Each structure stands twice: as C-alpha cells, then as structure tokens.
C-alpha cells in the first residue's frame, strides 16, 4: 500500500513538474552568421507566435566584449506598439555561444498573434547575436536600428506556458469540431437523407435478418459476403461507412446543381442555398423515423457494433483530419496562385446571392463559363460559419480532401468485393 501511494505521489510530482516547465519551439534556430550588439544600437525581430501562453524568448548569443552591462529585451505587439513585457540578462552570463532565455509575462492569447522584440545593451560590454539568411524565416523580419534588414533573420526560440498552451489547443480543437459539425450538416446530411429515402438505411441489421425481402448474409456490415446476384450496390448502401461515403458524394453534388437550376429560372437564394438541402434532409429523416416509430420498427433496431475494422477506420480518419487541419492552422490565406481566383469567384457568388455574369468590380468581364462546384461549396460554408471568404476557401479545401478519402471507400469495397 505504501509503495502504491509513493508511486502515485512521484507520478503526480513528475506530471506537475512537467506542466511547470515551458515548452520550447525552435522558431528559427539556424545560425550561420552573427551581428554585433553594442551600446547605442538596437536589433529587432518580428515574429508570429504559434500557440497560446507565450512566456519567454530564447536568443542565440555569443560573447564579444565583456562588461558589467545588461542585455534588455522588450516585447511589443508591433514595432511601435504597446509594450507587453521586458526582461534583462547580464552580459557577464554570456560565457559561451548558445540560446539564452528572456522570461516575459505570459501572453494568454498569443496563438497566431504578431509580435516584435527589440534587443539593446545598457552599460558596458557587447555580444554577437546569431543570424541566418533572410529567407530562413517567413513570418517576420530582422530590424537593425529600426530599419529592415532583408539579408538576415535573428536566431530565436519561443517558449510557452504548458497549461495555457493546452487550453489554447483545446479551444482550437473545439473550433475544428464546429467546422466538422458544419461540414456534416452541409456535406453529409442531405445525401444521407436521400439514401435513407431510397432504401439505404444503414441500420446495422445483422446476420440472417431480412431487409425488405432481401436476405442478409452472416454480417450485415460486410457487403463482400454477398454474391453479385444479390444486388451488391444496394446492399453496400447498408454499410454505414459506405453510406457515409455515398452521402458525402451526393451532398457535395447537390449544391452546384441547385445554384444552376435556380439561376435558370432567375432565382438567387443567397444563404438559403446553404440551409435548404440539409434542413430538407433533416425533415425527411425525422419523418422516416417517426413513421418507423409508429410502425414499431424502431423497437427492432439495434445499434451497430464497433468492429476492429471500424476502430481502424476511425483512427485513420482521425489522422487525416488532424494532418489536414494542423497544416493550415497558421495560414491566414489559402496558398498558391489559384487560390486568388477561387476566393474571388466565391466572393462573387456571395455578393450576387448565386451565379453571376458580371465579374465587376474585379474584372471587366460579362460572361461566366468557369466550373463553379468548389466555389459554391465555399459560399455555403461561409453563409453558415460567417468565416471570411479567404478562410472559407482554405477550410473547405481541407474538408473536401478529407471527404475524398471517405468517398473512395465505397468504390474500393465494390471493386474488390471485400
């Protein structure tokens, strides 16, 4: 008993100690050159914090001229902005090249925020500040006596307060969850309702039971058990993962068709494009379940079990979502040249409440022959989330990449009959 208590005390002590130690990220830790920092001079560096809880900055310093002075680091939200904190270390402590930490007041909401630090010396002595070529860091610039120095970037590290960082990631995860919920509402629910209305219930009915006159195999979630003469495509829709893929494909196809058909009769529905398909799908599903409840069918319904393959698929999808969302978390705008025209087209769809002919005020054109499927999806995502159009373009691109993985699943199952 005493050993168990001692073990848990040590374990909690280790966890508590780890939570107190700052988490350090090497923002720009390449050192190939240096700039001298002497009294009367300043070196500055702009940067972007990647997480909440910024509480210290590590600067690569090397001794140059000994003295009893001190190095002063001041943190601001921009070059001439509000002072957020100041830290000093003695020149006498700079005995060897390396990163030296300047502790600052914790910035609770520092995630993706711009900052600017300045270094100067008060008193006697000087040091070398490690630098790298100007293209080694893309989220800021080095300043020498207040003037930009495009040839260099300061070598620095950022440290974060672990609890603040964790809370920030949790908050960010909730935002991601909201985007996924909106994606399910827009890009899964309409198609799921259509499949439900055509018989693809995905109700997880198992071994030997009959579904509308068709005999199931030994495993209701494995269409590969059926022979081709038992309507494999129809039965495949009963598999929840196959149905998810088909629902996503159908849902994504609905919106551009709706944009086109309403435009042909002169209707521009604006935000209703985003609301009508999923709400209609929700009403259809509700009607079917109410009808099934009155008929007593819901009493026979059993929740589908989670098999090892299901868990593996969920794990893979989780990794896909994490990798897709993580790589764009620091991007204010979508990348590459095409993103400009895609965002502009989505903006015009929103401005016109539907399809358009005039490209004004962005271009002197009065024709529209470009494919608009992706742009219509960006517009409806914007109408629901109220994200800016550039951000909506960025997030919808990632969401469609995730859905593409899911949509491949039905195709693979039907091709390989497994």
Summarize the structure in words.
This protein has 418 residues and is an alpha+beta fold. The protein folds into 2 domains: 22-159, PHR domain (Jelly Rolls), CATH 2.60.120; 170-199 and 230-296 and 307-417, no CATH class. 44% of the residues lie in helices and 22% in strands. The chain has helices at residues 2-20, 162-187, 189-197, 232-236, 240-264, 272-294, 308-326, 338-352, 373-385, 389-416, and strands at 23-28, 33-37, 42-48, 54-65, 70-76, 83-90, 98-107, 114-122, 126-133, 142-144, 147-149, 152-154, 156-160, 210-211, 214-215. The strands form 3 sheets. Strands 1, 2, 4, 7, 9, 12 and 13 form a 7-stranded antiparallel beta sheet that branches. A hairpin with a 2-residue loop joins strand 10 (142-144) and strand 11. Helix 3 crosses helix 5, helix 5 (240-264) crosses helix 9 (373-385) and helix 8 packs across helix 10. The protein is elongated.
């Amino acid at each position: 008993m005493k050993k168990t208590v001692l073990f848990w005390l040590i374990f909690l002590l280790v966890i508590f100690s780890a939570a107190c130690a700052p988490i350090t990220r090497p923002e720009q830790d390449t050192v190939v050159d240096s700039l001298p920092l002497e009294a009367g001079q300043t070196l500055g560096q702009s940067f972007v914090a990647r997480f909440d809880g910024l509480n210290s900055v590590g600067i690569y310093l090397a001794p140059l001229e000994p003295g009893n002075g001190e190095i002063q680091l001041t943190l601001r939200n921009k070059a001439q902005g509000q002072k957020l904190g100041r830290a000093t270390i003695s020149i006498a402590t700079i005995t060897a090249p390396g990163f030296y930490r300047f502790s600052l007041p914790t910035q609770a909401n520092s995630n993706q925020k711009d900052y600017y630090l300045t270094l100067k010396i008060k008193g006697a002595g000087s040091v070398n500040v490690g630098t790298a070529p100007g293209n080694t860091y893309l989220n800021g610039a080095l300043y020498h006596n207040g003037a930009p120095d495009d040839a260099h970037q300061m070598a620095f590290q950022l440290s974060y307060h672990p609890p603040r960082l964790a809370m920030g990631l949790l908050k960010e995860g909730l935002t991601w969850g909201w985007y996924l919920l909106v994606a399910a509402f827009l890009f899964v629910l309409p198609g799921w309702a259509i499949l439900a209305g055509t018989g693809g219930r995905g109700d997880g009915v198992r071994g030997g039971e009959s579904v509308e006159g068709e005999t199931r195999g030994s495993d209701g979630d494995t269409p590969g058990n059926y022979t081709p003469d038992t309507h494999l495509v129809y039965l495949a829709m009963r598999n929840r993962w196959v149905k998810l893929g088909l629902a996503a494909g159908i849902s994504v196809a609905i919106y551009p068709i709706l944009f086109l058909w309403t435009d042909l009769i002169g209707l521009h529905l604006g935000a209703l494009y985003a609301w009508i398909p999923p709400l209609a799908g929700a009403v259809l599903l509700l009607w079917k379940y109410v009808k099934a409840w009155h008929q007593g069918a819901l009493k026979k319904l059993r929740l589908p079990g989670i098999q090892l393959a299901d868990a593996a698929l969920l794990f893979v999808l989780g990794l896909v979502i994490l990798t897709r969302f993580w790589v764009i978390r620091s991007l204010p705008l979508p990348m590459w040249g095409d993103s400009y025209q895609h965002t502009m087209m989505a903006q015009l769809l929103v401005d016109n409440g539907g399809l358009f002919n005039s490209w004004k005020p962005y271009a002197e054109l009065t024709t529209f022959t470009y494919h608009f499927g992706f742009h219509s999806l960006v517009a409806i995502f914007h109408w629901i989330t109220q994200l800016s159009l550039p951000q909506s373009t960025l997030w919808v691109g990632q969401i469609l990449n995730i859905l593409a993985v899911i949509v491949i699943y039905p195709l693979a199952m039907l091709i390989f009959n497994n």
